[in-house]
């Protein structure tokens, strides 16, 4: 197993390189970069200086993923002095050749140095560190609740397949799956955050302003109080897939020969279900863990972060795309990819813990 894990960890390196490289060259053809943003702001009188003047690329490093164009190709270049445009281009690192920026980016990323944000006045690593706990909080709690509910529910539906319980529970989870998370979030906000009805939960943030002054038990209560609605809004559509996967996995195993043999030996249904069927049926459920967590961690939390004013990675990446803040875009992409690859390795380890017969190292 150790040799297999070592191979998987080494495979992370070329995978990261391929994803970052492909995205680096894709953005070269994307219109409207940071220089366009800066020139447009100057022309509209929205800025007295250059965006990012104090922090954009003050470390002298080229910004990864920035396309290099001639001065006349900037849409906002009309009416500006060419020296001003040249200064903006130099400040954002556009004056360097494409291959130089690419290899500088790779060199920096090996050292987990993502440079500085062009518009936020902070390093990319600092922004990621501040946003990561929020996304991890939503992702972990959502995934935990989904698994704690879906696995027992799927097992019960498999045992009582075709019953009234199976029918109405399927209807409920399908309706929940059909409801968009942002729509459910709006409903929760209207009902429980002091709108037209109840004022039970806070509307924004993960902690109260006086969080640091609270005792430890007060901090735990305050944290759970703030996270309740965002997590509920995130998990509403997550039960259906895992519940039906669990049910179908158990039903498929129940029909196999070893279950018939166990019944012939006189084992009761509970022993058969939890001593024999459970281990085999859970393999498919475990295989879906990385996808479930990643969907909760990244894609599923974006609108929730926006609606509840939670400064997580999803909102950070979205704002960076809108602003064409390429260092932040590539930094969050790097973190997203790395976490996803490591979760796949964790999934393989969990496979062997559930069923020791699985030997990845012995595969050809």
TrEMBL record:
The keyword Cell membrane applies. The chain crosses the membrane at residues 9-30, 131-151, 172-198, 223-246, 281-308, 328-354. It comes from the Bacteria. Signal peptide: none annotated. It holds the Pfam family BPD_transp_1. The keyword Transport applies. It is found in: Cell membrane. It is a multi-pass membrane protein. Residues 132-347 form the ABC transmembrane type-1 domain. Belongs to the binding-protein-dependent transport system permease family. NCBIfam families: PRK15133.1 (NF011712). This is Microcin C ABC transporter permease YejB.
């Amino acid at each position: 197993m150790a040799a297999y894990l070592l191979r998987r960890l080494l495979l992370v390196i070329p995978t990261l390189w391929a994803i970052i490289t492909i995205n680096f060259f894709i953005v070269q053809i994307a219109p409207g970069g940071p220089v366009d943003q800066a020139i447009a702001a100057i022309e509209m009188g929205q800025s007295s200086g250059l965006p990012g003047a104090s922090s954009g690329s003050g470390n002298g490093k080229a910004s990864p993923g920035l396309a290099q164009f001639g001065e006349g190709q900037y849409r906002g270049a009309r009416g500006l002095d060419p020296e001003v445009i040249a200064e903006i281009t130099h400040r954002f690192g556009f004056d360097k050749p494409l291959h130089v920026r690419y290899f500088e980016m790779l060199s920096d990323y090996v050292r987990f140095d993502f440079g500085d944000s062009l518009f936020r006045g902070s390093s990319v690593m600092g922004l990621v560190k501040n946003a990561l706990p929020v996304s991890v909080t939503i992702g972990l709690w959502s995934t935990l609740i989904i698994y704690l509910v879906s696995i027992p529910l799927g097992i019960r539906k498999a045992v009582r397949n075709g019953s009234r319980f199976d029918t109405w529970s399927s209807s409920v989870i399908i309706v929940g799956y059909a409801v968009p998370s942002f729509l459910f979030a709006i409903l929760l906000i209207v009902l429980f955050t002091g709108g037209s009805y109840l004022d039970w939960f806070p509307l924004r943030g993960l902690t109260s302003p006086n969080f640091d002054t609270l005792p430890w038990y007060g901090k735990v209560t305050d944290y759970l109080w703030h996270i309740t609605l965002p997590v509920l809004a995130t998990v509403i559509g997550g039960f259906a897939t895992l519940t039906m996967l669990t049910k179908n996995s158990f039903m498929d195993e129940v029909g196999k020969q070893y279950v018939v043999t166990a019944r012939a030996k006189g084992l009761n249904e509970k022993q058969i279900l939890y001593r024999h069927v459970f281990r085999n049926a859970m393999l498919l459920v475990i295989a879906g863990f990385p996808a479930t967590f990643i969907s909760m961690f990244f894609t599923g939390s974006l609108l929730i972060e926006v609606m509840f004013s939670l400064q997580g990675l999803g909102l950070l990446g979205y704002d960076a795309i809108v602003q064409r803040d390429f260092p932040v875009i590539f930094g969050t992409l790097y973190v997203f990819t790395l976490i996803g690859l490591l979760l796949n390795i964790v999934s393989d380890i969990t496979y062997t813990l559930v069923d020791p017969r699985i030997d990845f190292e012995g595969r050809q």
